[in-house]
Specification:
mainly alpha; single chain
């Protein structure tokens, strides 16, 4: 089937589809329209994220537990 034939077929199927099928088609369309969050980042943001991931792979980071233990009292004052 070429593109035109596929469109005609889908249009016919939509006309006779039940609610469940229509919702599944809608979900497919909605997911397809969603943009990958990575693609919404600027080049600088991508660079920062990549650097952070590389640091984490090398265990070059401070855990959230360490931060909470060190600075948690600031939140209660």
């Amino acid at each position: 089937m070429n593109t035109v034939e596929i469109k005609k077929y889908i249009k016919k199927q939509i006309d006779i589809a039940d609610d469940r099928t229509l919702r599944m088609i809608q979900a497919i369309i909605d997911v397809d329209k969603q943009q990958d969050w990575w693609e919404t980042l600027s080049d600088n943001q991508k660079k920062i994220v990549t650097e952070g991931l590389e640091q984490a792979k090398k265990d070059n980071f401070v855990s959230s537990t360490t931060i909470k233990n060190k600075f948690g009292s600031w939140l209660t004052e």
